[in-house]
Amino acid sequence: MTTQAPNIKFTAPFKPRVRRIGPGRYLVESASKPGTGHPVTVDHCPCKGFSYRGTCSHVALVRAVEPAMRSWYDQATLPVPAVPFHQSVGYKALSECFA
Length: 99
What we know:
alpha+beta
């Protein structure tokens, strides 16, 4: 007697995209409507789930990633120390070429 394997379709879990749109504000992709997003803060979301329960997966996701994203953006926006051009590496390389 032979048995046939059931026809099971495996799909990857949905991984919503999160994009920072301002200080403390994020755009989180909707799982029910991929390609659309919700503007979310750590304590508010305009989705139906939040209006029913007072919390939702979008807010939970933002609470989970917000500290890391905030520190990354803070580091990315640090002022770069100004170096006079004549002391820069580029100037030194150019002066060596024409010496």
